[in-house]
Amino acid sequence: MSRDHVPSVESPADSAEAPFLELLARGASADAYEQPVLLARAEGRSVERVAALDRARLLALRVRSDMEGRRRREAELSALFETAHDLAGLRDLDAVLQAIVQRARSLLSTDVAYLSLNDSVRGDTYMRVTEGSVAARFQQLRLGMGEGLGGLVAQTARPYVTDDYFKDARFQHTHTIDAGVRDEGLVAILGVPLMIGSQVIGVLFAADRRARVFEREQIALLGSFAALAAAAIDTANRLAETRSALDRLGRAHEIIRDRSGVIERASDIHDRLAELVLRGGGVHDVAAAVSEVLDGAVEFTEADEAPAAAVEASRADGHAVRHKDDWVAAVAAGGELLGALVLHGHPGLDPVDQRTLERAAMVTSLLLLARRSASDAEQRVRGELLDDLLDARDRDPRLLRERAARLQADLDRPHVVLAARLDTAALDADREAAGRRRLWAAASHLATTRHGLAAARDGGTVLLLPLEPGDTATDLARRTARHLGGAVSEAVTVGASAPVERLAAHPDAVASAYAEGQRCLEALRLLGRTGDGAAAEDFGFLGLLLAGDRDISGFVERTIGGVVDYDERRGTDLLRTMDAYFACGMSPARTKDDLHVHVNTVAQRLERVGRLLGDDWQSPARALEIQLALRLHRLSTTARH
Questions:
Q1: For the chain, does the N or the C end have fewer beta carbons within 10 angstroms?
Q2: Listing from the earlier edge strand, what are the strands of the sheet with 142-144?
């Protein structure tokens, strides 16, 4: 007896279908439909009764099969509807594809379902989604185009099914694919194409680990899921393209907005630079204006302070160039490098902003040239006034004062006349002339800033500078020598006169003071103190003795050279002892107090001097020469100490 309850056959002859209707209502198994017929035979029912029951059984089984088919189609349609619903609300492509594979596996009652997609870049196909798979190698398969059952599906764009994969020779077997299928244990495989239009983009598979024949309805059902999967992929691709297009539009909008802002900034800086030029602004005003517009720190630097390679590159092609995180624009005119504009800490510079920096560099060069022209004109005027003071002694004092006042110079203040000269031997006449021009330019700039005068004269430069209260001519000469030497990067020697006053009323004093400054300059040169500065007060009567081309070093060597050499070799103090001895009136007793040594030490040192210079070294004639040589030696070594 079946586990399903079999209804009684004690029904009237005209109701043979009744037991089967009850079985249909209960959803009994197919085996249960045999029981009413068997029971009637066992009870000895008539042949007509048994035949009627058998006809009712066959009819009930057909009804049962139709009902199961409808239920199956309802389930399939429900799954397809749910999948379409998922597709309509597509948010995550992987989630939709996973749901398709899961439902396909469930409805077809297979062990495994999976989906592969073609990779046009690599020219192969790869496993995208799997359901029910247990083998890692199978889940990571990448197949060449045209390989395996999937390759056959892709080539023909038609479904293919195999009852036993390894015995099927219709498609190309490869070691990689067969190893993956063997790891998974698959036997029966059904594959249907994923198509967008006429293009195959992948394959949807359903597979069992046992031999199985897939029915036509199952193939059609998997094809429906493949169509939904292809639609999902196409929708996702279109959404991605739409998002990409929107992103590009957004970026284009940002670029247009930024470009509009850049153009506005360029217009703003153009107006500001034009205003600066019209009102006579300086280079630092240009840098400040560009800093504000470009939202960065811009500064003007001298040519030797900017990055050399970047400046040369900018100068060569006329454009600003990037140097690390900065931008450098050369400021040049007529092939001459005047400096550079440097934008600091702004590595990402818009091309329009770059041109703004280049335009600012051009404006800066124009301002520098204009300033230079004005400076050159002023320097010429200052030089002409000083030439008149030196040469034309009969000038009207009132006119001299007026001319000086226009140059912000006050001729009634105490002044010092300074003679300056380069002391570096040039290799040729052109380089020597260039050095003199640099010296004159540096001296003219110094005179302008100090409210003085400067002119080129006698192969060097002469300056007339005011003397500040508490200052001395010597200090002014030394500062001037250091300043000019640093400006021209060469040694500059400066001789200064004693202070002179009321130059407008006594213009002849300027010429006399200049001659005095020249004598001091010559004295420094003869003493070997090039690159130093001194005034007449530093030499006293020696200034008169040092004028002209006299062999000072030879005189010192002939007179006290033996003592100088002895001190240098032995580290003794014979020269200092001789200085103190003469300063103390040639008294050994006072000399030992001055040197803070014993009188015997003084005697021993003087005895050594006598052996080096001769016994007559203390005679009046020799003593005068020796004292002069000691003074000259001390003056010549001042610069070295």
A1: C
A2: 142-144, 124-131, 112-119, 199-208, 188-196, 160-162
273 pLDDT above the threshold of 80: no
pLDDT at residue 13, as a whole number: 43
Helix, coil or strand: residue 358: helix
For residues 517-552, one letter each, b for 16 or more C-beta atoms within 10 angstroms of the residue's C-beta and e for the rest, the string is bbbbbbbbbbbebbbbbbbbebbeebbebbeeeeeb
* Predicted local distance difference test score (pLDDT) of residue 375: 56
State the Cα–Cα distance between residues 331 and 359, nearest whole angstrom.
10
Reply yes or no on whether the pLDDT at 184 is more than 90: yes
| Confidence bin at 2 (pLDDT 50/70/90) | very low
The packing angle between helices 35-42 and 47-88, to 10°, is 170
State the number of CA atoms in the 13 A half-sphere of 588 facing the CB: 11
pLDDT at residue number 12 = 46
| Amino acid 630: pLDDT | 87
Cα-Cα-Cα-Cα torsion 476, 478, 479, 480, nearest 10 degrees, comes to: 80
Q: What is the mean pLDDT of the chain?
A: 80
- For the chain, the first-to-last Cα distance in angstroms comes to 134
Whose tokens are 């500001």? That residue is 272
Helix, strand, coil proportions of the chain in percent (round to 5)? 60, 15, 25
Give pLDDT tens digits for 414-464. Answer: 889 899 998 766 556 777 778 888 888 888 888 888 888 888 888 889 988
| CA distances in angstroms from 332 to 302, 316, 532, listed in the order given | 11, 10, 35
Q: Which two tokens stand for residue 388?
A: 């008149």
Q: Can you tell me the distance from the alpha carbon of 44 to that of 40, in angstroms, rounded to the nearest whole number?
A: 6
Residue pair 411/401 in contact by the 8 Å Cβ criterion: yes
